[in-house]
Amino acid sequence: MATSPCSSSGVSSSSSSGLGADAGLEIRTRSVEQTLVPLVSQITTLINHKDKPKRSDKTLQAIQRVGQAVNLAVGRFVTVGEAIANENHELKEEMSVACIEARRAGETIAQLTDVANLDHPESDSHITIFTDKTGVVKAARLLLSSVTKVLVLADRIVIKQIITSRNKVLATMEQLEKVSSFQEFVQIFSQFGNEMVEFAHLTGDRQNDLKDEKKKARMAASRSVLEKCTMMLLTASKTCLRHPDCESARINKDGVFHRMRLALEQVIEIVTDSRPNGENEMAPISIYSGIKEFKNKVEGLRENLYFLSKENLSTMLEVILEHTEDFTDSAYTSHEHREHILELSKQAKMELEQLVSVWMQAQNQKTKDLMEDLEVAILKTCQCMNELKREVHSAATSLAADLLKYHTDHMVLKALKITGVEGNLEAVAEYTCKLSEQKEQLVEMCRLLRHVSGTEPLEITCIHAEDTFQVTGPQIISAAETLALHPSSKIAKENLEVFCEAWESQLSDMSLLLREINDVFEGRRGEKRVYLSLPRPGKHNANLKALKPVKLDTEEQAKIAKLGLELHLLTSDVDSETEKWEDQENEIVQHGQGMSSMAYSMYLFTRGEGLLKTTQDLFHQAEIFATEGTKLASALHAFSDQVHEDDKPLLLLEAEKLISVCKQLQITAKASAQGKSATFTKVDACILKTRNVMTLLCQLLPLCFKLLRKNKAGNGCLKPAPPWKEDRLRTGTNAHTPERRAETFGIKSLENHVTNMTFLESK
């Protein structure tokens, strides 16, 4: 089962306080993870109180309120968990144990926080949070572990519903395959349609809930197949019933059923995280991912000269160059692209040889000159790999653009429809050959695009597209042959139309996919969004046109590489902070994300990558970045009106600091710089001051997050939970659909009760 105990995951946000969920539980869905966040946060806040020397009456009362509130919320939470256990006997024992542990831990926390009426808690014989630090940490750990178990066990019920729904679909499909009359087919297909709608809802919710982006992409691909095949199954089955002795109609129908079964199986593999016969999923390695890993290893030599062997690097490069043969051996790669790829492959080998030579010398003797030579060799090797990446990207995307443009008229499909209706078997055979050629071209296009897709989800989308063309091509051919044999058959004509529409739809999807791949390459989306704020002709100061565009050379990149890396790390920290916010539309979050994206594009500039091509692009980006920082400061001023009076001065002080560093950056970015040396000094200063702003942002975001939660808690988050016995159980008794039962005894009902743990945080 997907959520059975397996590899360690825990709850990352609790680690800083020594708390963690059961190491044997892996959390694979966002709903479970997000449900735990308020509990982890409150427990962490509670634990942190023990380190504060001053304990006013207000603090003691706040601690007691938090402890009691946690206990009450756990009690409500456990009640729902017990109801789930009673409804699902196979999980009853595990769920009951987890509920008992959670209830016990909640009661312990309430006892340990019963401190409000104690004048001298330390000297009193009564055991409290102040006298038994170990006890409260143990109780907190037990609470987190048991609540996580309850949530993960409840998640199994969702998986069980998907499996049950899939089994119903499969059973009905078997009946559909065996029917021999139209009347029987119509009745069973109506049932099949309802079951597919239910399956689509369940799997759609699951897809949105998955944390793993690869699994989300695989689920989306499988659901797309099922959606398109449902209509194909209808027309292919009707055609087979109308023409029971037609071999091509039978082949056409069998192909649809086979593809649907494969898609259903893949959905179950994803939700249960299993593979048939225990085999491991071996994802094909793309050129992009190979180059990325190779560059990371090469750049790692800056920090550690001994963490890998030269043989490892050589092997990695060999694998990458083997994959480039997919391009050089392809009949569809232009002569120019083929020659460039071969030249760059040769150059990459030479650059690596030079790098290894300097690297080996540096291991024996770490002189300043050798370390500088090593830095230059690292940059040259990475630059060569970037050029190779750019060349294969150009080869794949230009081929895709040409093919998609060439096939937009769908002439072959139109000809197959016309010749099929005419009953012209010879012409149909001629056009099926042309369609087969077109299919081979498109399959090759998908294979090459996969190498340059840039992200794992897009790689999976390319693989799905390749499979779709591979399967749909022969299905169109069998449908066209059936129509040619029965030219007056309306259902055979309709069947061919459905398969042709599927082909056209996939071609349309390829245009969108190509755009996404180009966006990733240009830094507009993917692993990190890059803020698009480049100057456009005629939109900015006329002086910008007069300035000659300047790029950093290899030596300058080497000097600024460390600063760029620091900037990269800060953007990751800012992203981690913004992801914690529940309201992603919050003005503070949006400004923070925008600044992080711009800082990331500036980091890419230090590597000679991304959308910022010249120093002037960088300076303009720095100005926009500083402006965004000033807007954030304004948002902080507005936010200060919502926080407690005692917290307001600190927030306003941080906002003023932000305004100051942003002004400094703006002055630097606007200052004139003539000559190479002065320009590089300005670049260095801009990156340095951007780093200073990002450092301050890393401090500001957690402060705002804490104050926001404190403010919400202070405004009355201790709301009574809805009477679940009267509402929830009554709903559960009356409702029989899987969706309603999932709502009653699934993750959502548990979320509601854990949400009530977002209580008052004292000062």
UniProtKB/TrEMBL annotation:
Per the record, the domain of life is Eukaryota
Give the primary localization class: cytoplasm
Does the keyword field hold Transmembrane? no
Which keywords fit this entry according to its UniProt record?
A: Cytoplasm
Biological processes per GO annotation: cell adhesion; Rho protein signal transduction
Task: Tell me which InterPro entries the record gives.
Answer: Alpha-catenin/vinculin-like_sf, Alpha_catenin, CTNNAL1, Vinculin/catenin
Looking up SUPFAM superfamilies in the UniProt record yields:
alpha-catenin/vinculin-like
Question: Which GO MF terms are attached to this record?
Answer: actin filament binding; cadherin binding
**Does Cytoplasm count among this protein's keywords?**
yes
Location(s), subcellular? Cytoplasm
Cellular component, GO annotation: cytoplasm
Query: Could you tell me which residues belong to the region Disordered?
Result: 1-20
Q: Where is the composition biased (Low complexity)?
A: 7-18
PANTHER family (UniProt xref): ALPHA-CATULIN (PTHR46342:SF1)
Give the family per the record.
Belongs to the vinculin/alpha-catenin family.
What is the protein name given in its UniProt record? Alpha-catulin
